[in-house]
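Re-run with default settings, no changes from the original entry. Doing this only to confirm the output is reproducible before filing.
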Amino acid sequence: MCSGSMADIEMYSAEERRERHALWVESQVAERRARFLAKRPEVFAVAGDLRPELGDWVHRFAAGKAGNLALVGNVGGGKTWSLWKIGERLLDAGFLGRYDIVAAHRLKSLISPPVDETTLRAYTEANLLALDDVAAIRVSDWDSDKLYALLDERWERRRPTIISSNITALGEVLGERAASRFADGVTLVKFAGPDRRGNR
């Protein structure tokens, strides 16, 4: 909460302390939202609404009742845009946790030798982690083991993970062990239709 000595804090009534705490939370949310949106690539800053099933998942996550989420479907269907919009919606709802979005090429560089253990540990501990466009990378046996370790630890700790992919058979990308962990309680959302980027 706000800094200050115990004497300073005790001089406020319970109602004043609640108001001050609410203001602090509001400022934290505003700062985190600004930082998150500053990281969002401009191409994904297009206005729009989340699909209803994703909005429902966001609501469940905010209530601590959501499991993993898979966004699968055609290239250019809006999956990556949805990942950023999910973060925006969560922050608007007062989410103060850590949400990381990791592109496939970035993930590949982290899990290939030499492994970036520090960053992988941070991703393991994130409140919510999104692995974007995982079908875009080729996973070696080494990569598969590291990816399994990441998803297994998140699964053990019940930390939801979001995966976007243009193929539904995630076992072909993640490896069967990692895909099995990820599939436990997953919400699957399919994206259909033409490549939006080709229609601009």
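DSSP finds nine helices and five strands in the chain. The longest helix spans residues 14-39.
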